[in-house]
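Quick question about two entries, pasted in order.
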Amino acid sequence: MTHASTDSYLLEVSTELDASPRDVWELVSDLRRMPEWSPQTRKMLIRGPIGVGTRSLNVNKYGWKVWPTTSVVVRYEPQRAIAFRVPENGMVWTYELDDLGDGRTRLVERREAPRGSTPMSRMLVMRFLGGIEEFSEQIERDMAATLARMKSLVEQDA
């Protein structure tokens, strides 16, 4: 992957789905369901409707390590994109939908740190998660697995 960015935390994966943007959006925008497809997310607790400003309490797991995070939805464009920021580490996770026509959609998952990662997060990743490069490689594999699970779920329902 090549990116014209100085964000060393930028990761991006995509897939094409045999489903309409409406059907893909229905799945992607329901962040409460994130544990169904994300290998590291165990819980995403949200009260009320999802939109810009919605906050969540999350439980993540990697190997035997479990940790909490919070997130806030920073972008919400129905059938186009949803993004949430994790204040603890500075990461922004985005899901973008591209209508390819004929009932097909390209789904992109992106992780970036527009303002850089937090010092505490960098220290914890270095000490407990194998280092920035190794953990980023794992995250990228998990992102591909996330999109594969989403693809499977939405295509079986389409």
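Here is the second entry:
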Amino acid sequence: MNAIARIQTDDAQPIAGIGHNGGPAPNAFEKAEAEVSKLYEEASLWLDGAKVDSQELADGIANLLNMLRAAEKAADAARTAEKEPHLKAGRAVDAQYKPVLERAKLAADACKKALAPWLQKVEAEKAAAAEAARREADEKRKAAEEAIRSRDAANLEETAAAEALLKEAKKADAAAKKAEKDGAKAGNSTIGRAVSTRTIYRAEVTDARAFARHVWANHAAELNAFLDTLAARLVSAGSRDLPGVTVHTETTVV
């Protein structure tokens, strides 16, 4: 008796009736696990590395493949059925909280819109102050550097004056750095985080050719990966004559 015949014979065995001492009936997962395990063991007998050299052997393996497909489909259906109550419960929770979350987001968005003009005004003022502080720091640094270059190293008074200018330049630089990091904020920091602004940069390609040349020169790996994906999609959709693309033909078992 071959392996497929053994499977069919095993499947034909009668199921124990009520009163049988075999324990509780297996649940859906146990049934699926048992069926797949049985077929997996059969597959290990058939697929021992030997080549398929007869129609009978090919038919037997094909039949086993179809039985495995059916077992996989049944197991997946059981998984879906077992998971559905949990998904339904999750959807019910989402539905319950959805209006609450939407109201919170609506009010939060209104707060942001109300704060935006004020924070933008304060941000602009702080940016102007930071720019002025940076100019002052740069001027003091240049003055200190010039004083150090032109001083007479043997003149203690000139050296002390140059060192004083250098200290002032360092203080001005520290003040400028602090001002550059200081952004507009609102809110009591003890209640969550302070509300602030954030600069967002949005890209818009206005010259595709120029950008493509830049990408080819500086990001060739990412471009090649994108082109591979695009070529695969086009070939899958039926394209066979694409410039620069070799379409390989492979035969797979379905």
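Reply: The CA atoms of residues 30 and 75 lie 10 Å apart. Residues 110-196 form one domain. Hope that helps.
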